[in-house]
Every structure is written in structure tokens, then in C-alpha cells.
Amino acid sequence: MAEPTVPVTKENVPYLLAEAEKHVKELSAKSHIFDEERENSFPRLRGSELDVGRVLGRGGFCEVKEISGIKLGAPLAKPRYEKEEDDRVYLKTHVIRNLDARYAIKTLGPHTRDDAILYMKGAIDLATEARFLAVMENPNICRMRAVSECGPYEDGFFLVLDRLYGILEDRIVEWNKKDAKTRMSLANVFKRLSDLK
């Protein structure tokens, strides 16, 4: 029989996020790849500045939605780095590319509110992902472009990521079709070569 779940309330959120922070700090202490200066070099956006569109995907903890527009409010009270406001403006002016949303927002999914343990694990996962994405630069890894103005251990934390156009399953089907066409083309070339003999 499943254990009863405790819903997330405004009373238990501070405790859950403090526990999440403690857990991430313990995990981070075992690693040398994290770089706080790099983590603080991403522009911050307010949730109220984002026009959020359709859901692109859902996972065990999080939900990803497209960002269809950015309407910047007042400049941040305390920029974390010299060009932060310029970077916020860049995101605003480049939010649409080829008539499509360029960025996506990743937040804890609404379903995590039903279970305090799931919410805490999701907060750990999202904060850890932000730390990893801040230091990872690889064309095969989705890039983080910004984070929420509130910190990772505050309710409402989110990441702004490059939007993916398709999922791995779709890409595999696409690659297989291309591979089949390539094999067919090569077979035709070899057949024509053998006919020349």
C-alpha cells in the first residue's frame, strides 16, 4: 500500500527548499566542476516578463513550455555582472527566430504540488541541472540562456533554455529515413557501376 502524500503548502515550502539546498550543497561538495562565478554570469528574468506558450514536454518533476515573448520590466535592482541588462535585452530581441519560439522555460510541474517529497526532489533536480548547465558547453547539450530572478531555493525558480525542435524519438526516425535513402542511393550507384563492366 502506498504511503499517503503530503501536499505542498506555503507553510512547508521554506522547509522543503532548505532541505533541497542542503542536499545540493552536499552533492556539490563532492564535485570540482561547478563554478559559482559562471553560474552568476547568466541573466535573470522575472516570470512576469515571460509570455509562456504551449507545453513542449513533461518529465518526472518538470514541465517545459515555449516562450513566445519577453516584455522586460524595470531593470534588475542589483545586477550580478556588468552586462546583465544588455543580456536581458538580447534575449528579448531574439526570442523569436524564423517565426518560431527560440527559447523554452523549464519549471517544476504543477503535479509536484501534490506531493511534498516529489516537490523537494524536483527542486534538487532543477537546481542541480542549473549548476551543470552553467558549466557545460557542448553542441549536443541544450544551452541554458537565463535563470529566474529568484534563486534555485525559492518557490518559482525556472531555467530558460534553447528550445528543442523535436524529441530524440523523432530524430531517430528521421535519421533512419535518411540512412535508408543513403543505402538506397549507394545501392543504385554500385548497380550502375556493375552494369558498366
Polypeptide structure, described:
With 197 residues, the protein is α+β, with helices and mostly antiparallel strands. 41% of the residues lie in helices and 20% in strands. The chain has helices at residues 13-29, 36-39, 84-93, 116-135, 168-196; strands spanning 44-45, 50-58, 62-70, 96-97, 100-101, 103-108, 144-148, 158-162. Strands 1-7-8-6-3-2 form a six-stranded mixed sheet. Helix 1 (13-29) crosses helix 4. The longest helix has 29 residues, at 168-196. The protein starts with 12 loop residues before the first helix and ends with a helix. The model has no long low-confidence stretch (mean pLDDT 91).
From the N-terminal CA to the C-terminal CA, the straight-line distance is 74 Å
Secondary structure tally: strands: 8
The main pleated sheet reads as: 6 strands, mixed
The chain-level structural class is: alpha+beta
**Averaging pLDDT over every residue, what do you get?**
91
Tally of helical segments: 5
Strand content: 15-25%
Along the chain, the helix and strand elements come as HHEEEHEEEHEEH
Poorly predicted tracts of residues: none
Task: Output the strand order for the largest sheet.
Answer: 1-7-8-6-3-2
Helix content: 40-55%
- As a whole number of angstroms, the C-alpha radius of gyration is 22 Å
Overall shape: globular
